[in-house]
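Example complex used in Figure S2.
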Amino acid sequence: MLEIKNLHVKLEEEDKQILKGVDLKVGEGEVHAIMGPNGSGKSTTSYVLSGRDGYEVTEGEVLLDGENILELEPEERAAAGLFLAFQYPVEIPGVGNMTFLRTAVNAQRKARGEEELSATDFLKEIRAKAKSLKIDAEMLKRPVNVGFSGGEKKRNEILQMAMLEPKLCILDETDSGLDVDAMKLVSEGVNALRDGKRSFIVITHYQRLLDHIKPDVVHIMSNGRIIKTGGPELALEVENNGYADLLAEVEQA
Amino acid sequence: MKRAELKQRKLDATSARVEGMTLPAGAAWAEALRQDALNRLLAMGLPQGRDEYWRWTRPDTLNADAPKLATVFVAKEAPVFSGIDRLKIVFVDGVFDAEASDALDGENLEIMRLSDALSADIHWVKDAYGVQEKKAQTPVERPFATLNTAFATDGVVIRATGKVAKPVSLIYLHRNETSDAILHHVIRVEEGAELTVLENGPAAARFNKVMEVEVADKAAFHHVRAQGRDHERRAVTHIFGTVGQEALFKSFTMTANGVLTRNEVVLDIQGDDSMAHVAGAALGDGDFHHDDTVFITHDAERCESRQVFKKVLRNGAKGVFQGKILVKAGAQKTDGYQISQGLLLDGDSQFLAKPELEIYADDVACSHGSTVGAIDEDALFYLRSRGVPTAEATDLLTLAFLAEAIEEIEDEAIAEDILHRLEGWLTRRRAG
Ligand SMILES: Nc1ncnc2c1ncn2[C@@H]1O[C@H](COP(=O)(O)OP(=O)(O)OP(=O)(O)O)[C@@H](O)[C@H]1O
Ligand SMILES: [Mg+2]
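Predicted assembly (685 residues):
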């Protein structure tokens, strides 16, 4: 599904290397978690995957279903099935949430040569999905993320994901800012999308989320690299002991 | 150049400009009003580039003896407001076209051609024609409006005596490439009455238009205008309005294209507890130049005024905003808001703004803001990351930028029509 090979990324404007050889392979239907200290490059990885400006790939490649996506525009990557739930969802005053979602859904369908969703079908679908995420009709009408609470923004990201039905979902700290109930809702939303084919990369600092969304593989990222890969037990180890031991291990090696 | 010398130059230029023009004939009182306007014009002179009020907009083509040629534009789609049930009044190159117009009457409505009203021995317009224009010459001179009062050849005089069901729609067709039109409308919305006036079309190669509106106590006036798409057209327009007690005044203007547009709005809020909103959405490309100059005076208590002006500029287009809120002593609890924003779709375009507040009352809440910037990169990326192509995402954000101005249109069908036009403009640029 996704293969990141020796990815090196620096900032476009500055001489600052952020990713220093990331290797990652996510198979079909798998859930991978990425953990790691603040500033280790997790969000940068997700941004580079989705095609944000401001970064320069100096080495390596990213294959989605065998195709190198680094040459593609962000919208093309989205149409190819990549979705990023932002760590900090963007507010867009003046654009209604509903309009936004409908434009996005239909743009992707168009890009894939599919027919646009009719207004009624779209409404039916979004109402059902919003309901399961406890997003009320009023929130759908409001401008995208404007005046949304932190938790509402995160739920809105998951709603978008549910509507767009991507192949690969990257969730960047979707759990941060969520209360216990919202965390359950969001996890249920994510789990509902697990169909054995769709893959997930879940970036998080906490074991809590991984209790709900059970990962197959856990990676630890530090200083622009994946320094350790293991099973779910690796997340528990981090939860209990922090990163110090893991980092020391790598230093020694 | 010395001040006196400059003034003399202005006066000479003004004499030259009006030399070939004749004051239209009418009733004695009307001719006197026109003569008075001409005298005032000759005393103040037409504006020159050095005038402070015209420092960002060059008045020379508006001053010139003859208008510059403007190619007649033929749109593929039906004109704006076509789907709105309205009373149509058509002017072709500034001349009333009775044949193309609906009958000039309606319930709670009295409409008369300006030349007829100004020829009658007795008519209420005697106390209204040019009156607001004259008053609005201080503290800032507006000579093109004075020129208009003196020489206006056509226009309508409208009186609403109750709620008028259909909007009165003034349609300005442009057929002659070198036409020069001067129209003057006088509108009186009487106590408790309600009137909507629509305006659309370029009118002429060069267009000078004045609209004097009196909104009496508890009356409501809605105005929505779409200026013509003929790119080479030039227009200088003035709206003068007085607003009575518990009254409502709302005006919205859409301008897409036009090498020169100067829209002035001068409002005088005279009655307590009233509301006056003026808004504009302008879209321009290349040698587009658009200037909104607004002056709102609060002279009553607990009134609200809003100025919402948004301009989308690309390929070197230029937008200007000069807006003022004057709160007189005693105009307590005034709520004044003013926002002017330029969205530059490239580095060549320019938005110049001069927002001003002048407040002589102590218990008021006034705010003003002016911004100029490009499309928000974060928002653009967010949209693209959801699969919306760059061009479409840019249009969506552009319409979002304009939304606050469009929201000022109260009637949903009219707002929808305007929105549709704005979308059309953006889509056409995308294709081209
Ligand atoms: N545009 C930028 N300008 C300057 N520094 C940047 C930029 N983007 C990323 N960085 C730097 O790159 C490093 C990695 O940042 P990134 O956001 O990827 O970390 P992260 O692992 O997601 O951290 P966190 O857990 O705090 O979210 C940080 O040191 C950050 O300051
Ligand atoms: Mg991060």
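The mean pLDDT of chain A is 92. Chain A is about 40% helix and 30% strand.
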